Amino acid sequence: MNHTHPSVILVTGAATGIGQLAAHSLAEAGHTVYASMRDIEKRNAARAQKERDYATARGVDLRVVELDVTSQESADRAVQTILTEQGHIDVVLHNAGHLMVGYVEAFTAEEIAHLFDTNAMGVVRVNRAVLPHLRERGAGLLLYTGSTTTVVVPPFLGPYVASKMAMDGLAQTTAYEVSQFGIETCIVMPGAFTQGTEHFPHATRPADTATMEAYARLDGMVARNEEATSSLFAPDVDANPQAVADEVVRIVGLPAGTRPFRSLVDFTQAHVEEGNALLWKLQKDFLDRMGFGSLLTQTVPQPNEV
């Protein structure tokens, strides 16, 4: 139990999957956790109540807050609610996300934009809501649930992969800027999980079935996709998304200034850490040559500098 430095944590997309597991694990570790989800009065009322019951049964400080990441007003209100109740926020876990499965051509630009609105723009809205507070405090942690798909690009998930790349790009470039105010960033990169989340069962398919049918020669590959992904796991490995939640708890528990910029939780042996290490080296070299190397370092401003 990590009772020494309990944090106030906002988790987006906490109704199911990794978000829910992380919210539970963080609360069990002694933190005050706001599990956020959409429509807690109606559509998700039962899920919201389940979280409250969990908190009571386990004796943990887990609360439910309404937050729809597709609405700036909703993000602002959720952050304000937490600040009113707690006085501060220490950590935001950006986890809201949706999956689309299908051939890229079969999706309309509007369908893909809708996915981006949740997976990438949701991060923008929540950051806009919380960053004024974190900048003023000169502290805080932005934690993102990224994806190994941004490095090893899997087939048949085109819009999803593109949205995660956009989110990763926003996370990185935001990190440059907010690091100068003492705010840390960490991108946790889960590999593929074929169990323990509702990602695949709830995935959206394209409305344009005629174009989907034009790609019928690839349907056999799509049908094998989940099995093919599972075959990447070592035989003795339990590829459980709880491992991602455990890593989130570990990162939050680390002292400020010692947290990794990226953390990999991958059972598919995709060697993503090698890609990450090379990209970091190239990025550092590029920024150093521009004279902007300090943007990659956590800088806690002194009062006279602000």
Automatic annotation (TrEMBL):
Taxonomic lineage: Bacteria, Bacillati, Chloroflexota, Ktedonobacteria, Ktedonobacterales
Domain of life: Bacteria
InterPro entries membership: KR_dom, NAD(P)-bd_dom_sf, Sc_DH/Rdtase_CS, SDR_fam, SDR_oxidoreductase
Residue span, Ketoreductase domain: 7-186
Native source organism of the sequence: Dictyobacter aurantiacus
Coiled coil ranges: none
The protein, known as: Short-chain dehydrogenase/reductase
Similarity comment text for this entry: Belongs to the short-chain dehydrogenases/reductases (SDR) family.
